[in-house]
Fold each of these.
Amino acid sequence: LLSSPLREMSEIEVEAPDIIRLILQFCAENNLNKTLQTLQDESRVSLNTVEGGLDSFVLAVQQGNWDHVLRAVSRISLPTDKLTLLYDQICVEMIELREIELARSLLRETTAMELLKQSNPTRYMKLEALLGKTFFDVREAYPDGSTKEKRRQLLAQALSSEVQVVPPARLLTLLNQAVKWQQYIGTLPSGNRFDMFRGQAPMLVDTVEKCPTEHYRTIKFGSKSHAEVSAFSPDGQYFATGSVDGFLEVWDHETGRLRKDLKYQEQDHMMMHDESILCLSFSRDSDMLMSGSNDGMLKVWKVQTGQCLRRIEKAHTLGVTACCFAKDSSQLLSGSFDSSIRIHGLKSGKVLKEFRGHKSYVNDLMFTPDNLRILSGSADGTVKIWDVKSMDAVSSFRPPSLNPAQELSVVSIALSPKHPDQLLVCPRAPTVFITNLAGKIIKTMNSGKRQGGDFVAACLSPKGEWLYCVGEDHLLYCFNMETSKLEQTMWLSDADVVGICHHPHRNLVATYATDGVLKTWVCK
């Protein structure tokens, strides 16, 4: 339905002088007078509008308010005959008022009167004669039964025909209409604020961290699909999901709609894998997105264009379960069902280093901020710290369990934003731990359930003041990191919840379940 009007719109031609006039009007309305004059001089385009509107301009001419009239016409490009007509009338009225010196200056020193002298020397000489008399001769000044009032009326009509009547703030109005239209058709993100220069919605930042209290938006996948993983970009502009059917999609988290301002999505040219997407990670500058799938493939995409920058078909022998970029985005870190951890070169696509030591699949991993260490959590129940240079595991520990013989799969790990030497360790159990990098327990937080309260995923808030855990009982557990207390729980879904992620600047979390429904939650 939109294709026809869009096609018609694409054929509209806008003249360059009209664009310059919009900018000139903006300068005039914001008292950028030097800029206005410079732009008019360089472009040779005049605004041809008058301050206060056409009616007030006509009234000023009819009343002989020549100061106001001359200021107004300084922004107008008048034909020579009308410009000389204006100065002719002003000169006559100055002579009548016996402002002889002013009349003489107008007659002999202005460009308009010089043009009159060249185009109509007879009239110019009559003005000189009128100026030289010791009295004002009305019949000579206004011959053929004319009067001052009639001359003013004719002049007002002549000048008003050169003035363009446009509404105020035309540039801002057109820009606002363009943004609203593009939001309407889905080519721009929604919201009532927009950074016109950067082409993005300005990012809101919640200065005080609070836990979510209510459901905000819903994203529904197909009947046989659901999100396996989701991630926000570090700048908060993108929200990506990877699904069991291999689709990688970028959403507007404010509306819950697909980002149609990304042309490849608007044209249904989606980023895809052949099998389920199991992990996602954005580069530090939010420009690239890495995805790993169940067939062992790793792909790196340019988010803005959807272009696949790097495709590593055999990144691992089994599914890629976790991934992240190095600090400078030149290297790709990945973990797998095959129990290995590998570093790949972005440019070469080759394996640069391999880390072995886990006895089961890798659930989560990351670089330390200095990129000298790698942290990993595995289904074998251990957390390992690796030296990137030597590829050795310099530390390994296991979170405690009520049953020492049972290996609790470590499903999530994260470094504390407040304390970089502290680590969140979330095993598949009803207890989550904050440890140091040697594995010494600093804090523990518990669901309070002996059965049915095991955590399946966890994440920290951006400032590290809140810990959110998703339980197998379909609840979201919100822990205050300062007090280690469970502040509240929220029901998430009737289906099994797969995971959770947190917006980098907002009090907003996203959870997704096997019923194909992703929900975002906010603090109100």
Note: The first strand starts at residue 214 and ends at 220.
Amino acid sequence: MYVINVPGSNNTTKKGSKWHNKIYWNLGLFSAIFGLLTIYFIVVINREELPVHHSHNEDILIVVKEERPDDIPANSENNIRLLPKDTIINPDKNGDRRDIASIDGDVEILNEPVIDDKALEEAIAEVEHKETYSDGENGAEDKKEDKKEHNMESVKGNLAELSKPWPPVVVPDDPHLYKLPGEDTNVSTSRAELDMRMNSIRDSMRLSWKRYKQCAWGDDKLHPDSCHGSTWFGLGLTIIDSLDTMFLMGMKEELLEAYNFVQDIDYKKGAKNVNIFEITIRVLGAFLTMFNFTKDQIYLNKAVELGDMLIDSGAFKTSSGVPLSDIDLSTGVSHRPTCPGCSKMSSLSEVTTIQLEFNELTRLTKDPKYKESSDRAMSTILQHIPEDHLPRIYVNVNSGVTSGTLTLGARGDSYYEYLLKQWIQTGEQRYQEEYLAAVQSIKDKLVFSSRRGLTYIAEILESKKISHKMDHLVCFLPGSLALGTLHGAPSWHLELAEQVIRTCVEMYRTKSGLAPEIIKFDSASKLFISRNDEFSLLRPETVESLFILWRLTKKPMYREWAWDIYSSIERSAKSDNGYSSMERINTDRPRRKGDLESFFLAETLKYLYLINGPDDVLPLKRYVFNTEAHPFPIRSADFGRTNENG
């Protein structure tokens, strides 16, 4: 960057004759013009000669951030421009010049802070309309509209290739074009080493609990760095969600503290806008599990009280039986979402991911009303299932018809998980048939492979265009595919699971060792991370799948990859204040977001603990985990059926 001082514009010239002043003025003017011409020549005429960070993919198109005045918002449409390949991106205000940072030659990250994701998608796929997810707890999606028509003439040649349809690839010719670290390991870890790992993970749980107790006792969510809590349910969610993890880890003192809190829970003192799906999987699920573990009536009483409140709220009294999304705990009345910009339709994953919990409540109480209510919602969805057996993410509560994007990520993921798990739990044939049909369509329509053999699950937008992005949430799928084979699904499900899990593990090959929220693939099937997605909530999906794959295959690499993930959490997400969600995870200095989701304690640490433990603890033929990692016993005979493969 040139800094030009023009003589005569300040006190840099001495007072003297007009002749001297004129010389200085002319020299200054000449210098200024020369400098501007030089900058113009470098930037506009010959900008490829600038020192750049080259993309490994020669065809990649980059959306960059212009330098802007402070009064222009960061996401302003005027702040976006399109440049040809290998053009340098301006450093941010902190001087960070990691314009395109490579992760072991296969993952790229674009430096596009707070840029509208739709602009990036238009540049990469021309017609692709990005739906951005802001899913702190429930994967809620905020769809942003960008009405500005971008000038695409300067990149027309690049976009010609990007707009061509890509054929899906199920199994690459060589699924091991390169190997992940530890993939060849056949060394069994000693029991002493595994015990050390379990103790370390238990210490992580204790540190998290200690900080929560110190800073946020009784609140739903911990903010460890500022040492305070925040409210979502108004019920002490972190306490409830952590119960069975502490039970499995033998944390008796902490469990007693939690038990004393649970006895005094008053649902009517809860929040006004509580998502029915979230409170079902986290609170109802936790209480049902703890009753099965302990037979303590307190837990079942709390489960029944909550179940009755949800049934009596009127949530299920819609014309279709598809429940409304939210409940006001203080009044016990259900309603549609009230948040600004929220869709007034229900989400597919929410209305179809309450069945395991309601089924279990019916099994324990012998009261059919819980199962009947949740069954009606599921039956309505199945009655309106598309021909491809892949419902879209938005559900009309009056008709049960789905619309919008087809994704196994946010708002769609656990529908497929619960198809399988309802089959396992109840032995009902309809769930088996629908699950198998859905997986076949996933294989036919959504499975793609990168040029280096990374198998990923794409999305189909409402416009029918394919979006080559994959949420970390999709990493539940390898575990579900593998689990299905234990209960009678075809063997190729396991083969596909072992392909997709490699992509999920690859997501962790960032500088921090933490996975981003979303990955994308460009036209050359190159994996990259957008700056907007460069954060980690310490999600559990990958370690959940690794746990199941380890149990089923006994391949040491799955347990070692899980330990690598835990080690990265220890290295990058831990401080004296405990653990925190992280951002800027592919930099040398990742930043703490300063909050901790309850699922880190309920799921992530639990699965990491179990994968290093003995297999006779919660065997997968006898227990099915709900989507919040709360395990229920498999008692299909109690539902009047027998799962012959269970």
Note: Confidence is low (pLDDT under 50) at residues 1-20, 42-178.
Amino acid sequence: KANEKCKRDLEDQLPNVRALRKRITGGAHDVLKTKCDVENQGKSLASFVDTEFERISRILERHKAQLKTRLNQMVEGRAKKLLRQHDELTASAAELERLEEVTEDSLETTTERELLLLYKFTKERISEVTQRCSRMCVDPVEVPNLTVYTSSSGAFSEMFREHANLYCKEADPSKCTANGEGLKSAETLATSQFSVRISDKSSKPCDSAQHISVMVKCLSNDISFYADVTDEGGGHHQVLYCPKFRGKHEITVQVNDAHISGSPFSVQVYQPPNQIERSQALIDGIKGPRGIALNRKGNLLVSEWNGGKIVELNKFGQHVRSFGTHLHHPAAIATDDAGNSYVTDAAGEHTRIVKFSPDGKVMKEFGRQGVNSGEFKNPRGLAISQQNELYVCDRDNDRIQVFSKNLGFIRSIDIRAVDTQRAHPCKPNDLTFDRAGNMYITDIRNNCIHCMTVSGQFLLSFSSEGDAPGYLAGPESIHCDNKGFLYVTEYKNHRVSVFKLNGDFVSKFGVLGSGDSELKFPMGIVTDEDGFVYVCELFNN
């Protein structure tokens, strides 16, 4: 009976055991699947790490080679300078040894006392040059011991008088000057130069005996370094420096520990487009950013296509304010020198152009949907010319309309046949102006760029459809920076292509994605004076 009862109990538990076995088997399958997924992710991660490691290694090797070349140039330049100083001192020593020995009390004229001072200075100079040769790994040259001599008649050779006059002058920092392109602008990772002229109180040149130092400081991160100074003789010095960071720099030039005239100098360092590799920051939380512009404060104005307003941000991405909340689908945005902003609102029956004051208040609204003058059909890009006229791309009407800053209609430019070599009529989507006042237009139908004068005269056309470097697919927006480079966003290739004004391809950056340095439907684009590029991603917000 006990056995039968135990058997019945076991039979009652059998379904539970089978169910438990089934769950364990299913869990094992899940574990195996998870293991496979982890292994696949591990392989993908390993491949990504290897790829990134190779890329970073190539960058480091390139920078290492550049630094090695730069260091060799600096060592060679300093060595030549030290040897030239040695030759000058040796010539002075040889002249001194041909004169009779005198003491300070026996010197009667001012010139003779200056010669004694020159003797003391020359000894110190020889010691300094010898030490610097040792630090630079340059073999020091034997220099004879110096003693001061004079003839019994008190006559001095003309050569020694010249050396005395040259070395005994005292530089006046307020009379010293510096000039050259390197004091106006510079490029990152490129050598810039300028010259310094050392003068005395009468503005006459002083020799290299004067102490000169040049300090370069990046104001955005407070990183400083000394520039390379080469003595060219006759009071002239050449200064070379190679900035690593873009933005405003301060160059301090001092002679005998005092600032020269104009010091410190303010220099803008620009990063050329071919050095753009990765994004520096992401500004998110914007509802469909489409158009972008800089206002006179240096802040960003971004049109929210899906948010129906204009957002003002500082360059760090911090929200400043919002305005134009009555807009429906704001597309492009442009600003004038007075701080006013102009926005195209492409929203069917609400199609219009809106002008805002610097404080974000509506000053005027103009336009409606249609084909007549002053009417629009899907208006997009707009820009202000050097004549302070507002040019608007009336995209689906295949024309550009020109208005005054008060939104008064001036004329219309029909650009359907701007380039007869193209297969289709031009459909303008955006435009920009270069410093010469010429107009560059993105043709979204032919996937190219047209260049015209403001009167509508055709100048050139470049690029065509494709995804290879130099080709375009869906050219959306275009911007000309202050160095004459054209930045074009491509919403089909999900990248930015850069061209010269003559149409020559320079570089490209961006790939499809939502991560760092990736783009998804890039739209508006603008650059600042430091070379930073700001790109609106419509789908990544």
Note: The CA atoms of residues 313 and 319 lie 5 Å apart.
Amino acid sequence: SSAALIEDGNALGDAFVKFAREKESDHLSNYYKEIGEFLQRTEELRVILNVAFSTKCYERFNTMLDEIKRGVFANQDVQDSQESLILSEIVDSYSNFFSEGVQNLENLVSLSKQKRESSIKILEDNAEGKKSGEIKISRIHFCSFVVEQESLLQSIQQIVNQYLKPLQQTEKIAMRILDEDRDAIFFKVEELYSTQSKIVDELHKCLSIWPAQPLGALFDKLTGWLDVFIQFVRNSSNALVSLSTAKRSSKLLRRMFNLHSEESKDLSSLLSKPLKLIPNWLNFIESIIEKDNTEENNSEDFLLLKKASKLLAENKELVSDCIEQNRIMSELLTVHQRITGYKEVLAQPGRRFLREGSATVDGRPDQQLFLFNDLLIETKKPGLVQRAGNSARFTFVRKLALRKASMQTEGDDPNDINSIKICDGASTTIVCTFATNNEKAVWCRDISHVLSEFYHERVFGIPLDELMTSEREKDRDVPIIVEKAITQLISDIDTEGIFRISGSRRDIDLIKESFDSGGTDIESNDPHVVSGILKLWIRQLPSPLMTEELFSEFLSSCSINCNEEKINFLKNSVQKLPKWNQYLLQHLISFLVLVSSHSKTNLMTSANLAIVFGPNILWKRSKEADLLANVTETIV
């Protein structure tokens, strides 16, 4: 209700004024950190100002702005003897941010004057809404969607102003981060901000002439701008890994990227928010379609809305996969932060963290074990002094690869019923003794599951050369899963959107689990499920099919204007690929050529196929990723 929103606005204004007047800090770094968090709360104010506004709230807002100006800039010259050079660098880096934050507040005050009457009118509109063309939707429902998109814009702006600009503008900070890590962390962020700004502008235009703007035409236009979001989504796992690498490499970067204590405002959380755009848009459009009788409404605008829904649904699988992969990567990165002395990269494609626990290992008590789906890591627990603090870490002792390992559940001593013996298949054997038989049983179960996966020779997430030299792929030129999928898809080659429409996620997961457990059949008659399993297998290859080593060479072909010269150049580049990569690429491209020859019925042109497969067969953490589809289309 408007009353509740206005009350929230007044309470927020009071809290701001009280903070600005009473806040005193013994440490300048804490003061700047909290003021930064304070300015970022303009996102909450924007939500309130876009929905309801009162004179009292407006007066508090103006007072807060004046107090902020005096509070922030009056303390810029304060010297704190307890702070180091790092502090002064942070202050310098964020001075521009504070200036921009204050400017944002001034703009918001100005905007609120213009919006006061129209904002209150929003709340007075009929809750059932009006018709927009042929489509019924409550204006309040649409306003909620607009506010959601503004909130996303604010989050992207925070990434740019709070994190990217200090890196660009402060040499002392910029020199502490590798170019490739910076490019991966902030991949497409500025373009994303520009695109989201255009989206919000279009939504405001629609709201200003409500209900004259047809929603189908609006979303048909907006979905045309999704490419940058899709590219951002594909890079999201790289961004997480690079962010973790940067934090570990420099104390200054760690302090900068951890500026906000609130989880919703730290950099990793902000980077995850654009991933929700496609699912949120799809949910919003589907709610409209469901309410507006889909069987009877065949207006042009409604068909455009269904077209937008279809395009969003086609990309939802990619987003779901990336969100799940990010969850796994985040878990791996968190575990790595708790282990000191482990120099390798723990967050790798295909790896999953399974469990941890205490055990006596080879007679060494109080050890901590970390089990992954391919690795067992032994660590030493911190001492009592360390354990009492917040910075407790485990010290790396050794790792045991499980790919060729075996396990013996009975120890050499018949009285030792709580021990297991694990051999890595080479020269290393360890004996783990647990406190109880129940603990032993749980560890035996999980380790046995890992070993059984390797026994059946998993096919997903396995390096191509390892897979092709395994017993199950003996005497084959391409993996059996690729051969089976392509053979089945050829019989359904005229299916519309054969590679763009998503199949059942549950069915795809069941087939994946079957193959990873030794199965060799694709038990589905749905061509979209079969194409989904093929795309998933290619996407989960630990290394790109066209290799990272030749990435730059393949991209350089984009600068060749003569098509014949470009094709000859690419042919020579393909011949440099490893044997198994050449075989598989030839097999895949030949099939895609066949698919594109049926584009009149399946709508999969070479350009469309390049969009689907390009980023999955040719990739590298690089800002040149825009050119991938161009290369793939030329090859097809």
Note: Residues 329 and 347 are 6 Å apart (CA to CA).
